[in-house]
Amino acid sequence: MILTFVAALIFVATLVVVIWQPKGFPIGYTALIGALLALVTTVVAVSDVFTVVDIVWNATLTFVAIVLISLILDEAGFFEWAALHVARWGRGNGRLLFVLIVGLGAAVAAVFANDGAALILTPIVVGMLRALKIDAKAALGFILATGFIADTGSLPLVVSNLVNIVSADYFDIGFAEYAVVMVPVGIVAVLASLGVLYLYFRRSIPQTYDLSALDTPATAVRDRVTFRAGWIVLGVLLVGYFVADPLGIPLALVAGLGAVAMVLIAARRPRFAFARVGARAAVVGGPEDVRGQQRSVAEPVIPVARTIREAPWQIVLFSIGMYLVVYGLRNQGLTDYLSEVFDYFGGHGVVATALGVGFVIAILASIMNNMPTVLIAALAITGASATGLTQEVMIYANVIGSDIGPKITPIGSLATLLWLHVLDRKGIHIGWGRYFRTGIVLTLPVLLVTLLALAGWLSLIR
């Protein structure tokens, strides 16, 4: 009984500090301190450390590699280039621009994970809206839509969200197997999100905007070599994800090789290869930068060392530490209560299972953050008596609840907290009260539609 109380206390204390994020105290160290306390108090055993590392290493390293690739492409101008193209496709129609930006956010979230969409695309959208001189009220609608779609659009692929990777790894779900289930469900989630976002912000969306205020997309590209190579690397990665499954190759290796390739290209390594490319370019006049000045392609443009440092390495420590803390709850039997709740829903059919598990997880994720929630739920699903289709519905409902549910509150995901911080630095403040009032209205209908789509699709294909 005492250890049960200690396990709960360590979990709550660790979670509070992680959400609070004291300045100069990274979340990874906080989680590790929580894990150390769990070890010292014997809430978890030393053997549990190896179990946890085995569970989370592939997920966290895959996530870090994908974010690193997105950071390098951002430095090359990839996302700004895409946003400027989207703005031009809007042809001066404000409502069409809104739809296209939501679509761009969903695409970026699916390929580059939710953090990439929220943290990289948002500043670009803010800059574009300011260039178009769209008023603050209308701009806020676009900005909130970008932040919202970053999570609701992160369902389709295993690599679209750290939550997805952790769940797929834990339940041994392959990349292709996951995609068969979640790509159609993810499309429904994006369409539902678009519909809800449009209805909510339709009165503030401007009728028109001035295209002449925008730069041409080509001016956004700061490193043409890395920009062009990025398309090839992304194509190879997508093929690699599908090929890796039957060969038993971890996704971390595939994504890691893609990240290494992007780092070497951005750093112009090996030198001799880029020197030859530079020599050939010089014969035909050489490339020009955005100011029209001659520049050698062999010369690095991107600050690679800084970009590598900015990758979310703390996530690796956070995942190991937080999961150990959560494992302490499991060791003391606290996840058994959630297993009983899941079993109750599982006894009432596929739709009840999807809705019940999905909404319970969404509420938990919005209160205590989605990463510990998905871990707790995974342990609870394992402890439940459900098998077959019912268990599969629980697994995917856990993913949906953990991906979409966090949008209800600012503390639901670390990406949202960082996103709000980025907006503050841009002079755009969204209070927690305002966020909650908007978040709950937008999230609940999208969550409902998506969970119903999951129940229907799984019933159809199974």
Q: Can you summarize this structure?
A:
This protein is an all-alpha fold and 462 residues long. The protein has 19 helices and no strands.
Structure, explained:
This protein is mainly alpha-helical. 76% of the residues lie in helices and 0% in strands. The chain has helices spanning 2-20, 27-40, 46-76, 78-89, 94-131, 136-152, 162-170, 175-201, 224-247, 251-267, 271-283, 304-309, 314-331, 335-346, 350-368, 370-383, 388-404, 414-425, 432-461. Helix 15 (350-368) packs parallel to helix 17. The chain starts with a helix and ends with a helix. Residues 282-294 have low confidence and may be disordered. It is found in: Cell membrane. Belongs to the ArsB family. This is Arsenic transporter.
Could you say which structural class the secondary elements and strand pairing correspond to? Answer: mainly alpha
Q: What's the helical proportion of residues?
A: over 70%
String of helices and strands: HHHHHHHHHHHHHHHHHHH
Could you tell me the strand content as a percent range?
under 5%
Low-confidence stretches: 282-294
Radius of gyration over C-alpha positions, nearest whole angstrom: 23 Å
Quick one: overall form?
Answer: globular
Specify the number of helices: 19
CA(first)-CA(last) distance: 43 Å
